[in-house]
Amino acid sequence: MNIAFYAPLKSPHHPVPSGDRLMARQLMAALTLAGHKVTVVSELRSFLPSADSATEARDREAEQEIGRISGLWAASGTPDLWVSYHPYYKAPDLLGPALCRRFDIPYMTAETSYSGRRNVGCWAQAQERVLDGGRLAAANICFTERDRAGLAQAAPDARLVRLAPFIDPQPYLVRSPEPEANHLMTVAMMRPGDKLSSYEALAAALRLILDLPWTLGIVGDGPAREQIERLFAGELANRVVWHGQKDRAEIADLLATAALYLWPGHGEAYGLAYLEAQAAGVPVVAEAVAGVPEAVADGRSGILTPPGDAKAYASAIASLLRDDQTRTRLAAGARRFVTEERAIGIIAGQLNDIVVRACEGQTE
């Protein structure tokens, strides 16, 4: 099929790396692997950072983009399907529903996110646009139970299907794990909000196990870097190595040396970095919060601790540093979990079934 792909929050071509960009790229790769031709149909970013942003200017840009795409399709033909990745209240799909209705094209979403508590102020209109797309879609792919439940409650008639978060594990599988004793690793962007909250929780837990000879490598950068560096100052300072931003190959090399992967995961949709670490054969210690349990198999590929409990988090890290047998078991389980359940080759077939059914007008 010829598939028009659109990510209203962040284009797959966006220069700044993030989990959102990575998932968009992986969806395109999975669809391509399944034999489809996938084209990014627009670079328009509908994201508005705050409730007082200029919605009228954004809507005008969207109307112009609809006109541009309509002209192209009128001249060269329409796609077989429109796939919209991650529409939510701050970045609704302002293009796909209108174009699909105009040209009678099947519409599909992946990772539509909806929460009723956002129905305030100007966000209420954006929320309705998200729901309009969800109701129109021949299939709404939900990567987490939280997203599925939120959309099901607001739009009971929406056609919902589950698909597990996934990655291409090959860059991590080609490296043999060579974990260094007591060496911990974290890979995360440095931004205010949930990212900063996780860094705060991580620093607090590590201060509780200073009696153990651990070291921590941190990969990432961003606007909150100075604030985060201060969290690890003092008695933590000589334990931490700041690697800065790295590409995927460099991250794979660093993960291969890690004994454990640490990231509490506050507010994570699911966290593709968890899957990357597990593909590298590194057990995860995270909190059972937000969408993290969708990406970490508790007891098989890592340990999940109660949300917000620094002592429990520190205890889980310490127990694995002291018990190499359990750590080794979880390391092997981590690789199995990704390769057998979350690899792109496996998910591509499942995704293809969803696409075919959507285009044929079948529902669950």
Automatic annotation (TrEMBL):
PANTHER family cross-referenced by the UniProt entry: SULFOQUINOVOSYL TRANSFERASE SQD2
GO molecular function: glycosyltransferase activity
InterPro entries reported in the protein's UniProt record: Glycosyltransferase_grp1 (IPR050194)
UniProt-listed CDD domains: GT4_PimA-like (cd03801)
Name the UniProt record assigns to this protein: Glycosyltransferase
Keywords linked to the UniProt accession: Transferase
Pfam families given in the database record: Glyco_trans_1_4 (PF13692)
